[in-house]
Amino acid sequence: MATGLALPSPLARVRDYVLSRHWTFLTGATLFAMILTLIVFAPWISGHDPAKQALLLRLKPPSAEHWLGTDNLGRDLFSRILHGGRFTVSIAAITVVLTVVIGTIVGVISGRKGGFVDDLLMRVVDLLLSVPDAIIAIFLVAIIGPGFGTLVLALTIVGWTPYARLARGLTMEVNSRDYIRAAEVLGMSRSYIVFRHVIPNMIRPISAVSFLRFGHKLITVGGLSFLGLGVQPPASDWGLMLADAQPFLERAPMLMIAPGLAIFLTALSVTWIGQGLEIDRRGPRALTDTSQPPARRLDPRSDQGSGSPSDGGRKGKSDRASVHDRAGG
Fold this sequence. Notes:
Blueprint: H1 10-19, H2 23-40, H3 42-46, H4 77-113, H5 115-129, H6 133-143, H7 148-159, H8 161-175, H9 178-185, H10 190-226, H11 238-245, H12 254-282, H13 312-328
Helix pairs in contact: 2-12, 4-5, 4-7, 4-8, 4-10, 4-12, 5-8, 6-7, 8-10, 10-11, 10-12, 11-12
């Protein structure tokens, strides 16, 4: 009769994974899941047409019929918050996905190629980093006109640069590992090395940064829409709702509190997710200990036989350098 260890069920594996996460990740993921649920199922949750006007009900306070009250045209504010969140979150999400893809590709190419290609790409990154998102958005609005696509394009043009720097650094770190050199000696193709070894080593750090940048993008989208550079009426998002609420701040403060709180909670939730991923990657002191730079995460096999703990790192590096020099000679 065959015997063996019983494998945990899929539900048990999910439970163990969730319980092993940091509290910031769990709190942020729960809050963000609730917000996404409200946004996705807005037509079935709100119960009101966000564009339907009722001038006799304008600027009404919160009630059982209108949970957050009504705006200056009698439209249900709760319904407008849910439907407006679709535009704000969608713009930020699409921008983050595009910037991650572009930045990762540029960073990997820069880190793998080195030399002139690396210098050229990093100078382009430096140039784009010096240009604020708002300046790009204003320039594009003057040419194309305001709208959903304009915001996505404006935030993508500059937004990929931090990911390019991060991907370049991670690629160069992985390139220095012994098993990468062994793969090159064995004749493995560059594409195989990139997709088998380089990309998997940058998924966790890029995921953490992408969630942190997601919160920044949400605030930027809200700010640009507040200035009139985003979606245009009759469509609406949280930033445009803030702009429309200014004349009625004293009479109906909920018109400004509700969209502002929506931006704050959504940005806070994704920031907590990013911080939780960063803590899981670097340890509990990752976000508070800034006295020392984070240690390089090298392959454990590269430290074998490197000498005493006090000078093991330096000796291991010098030994590998001398072996490499002799092999090259």
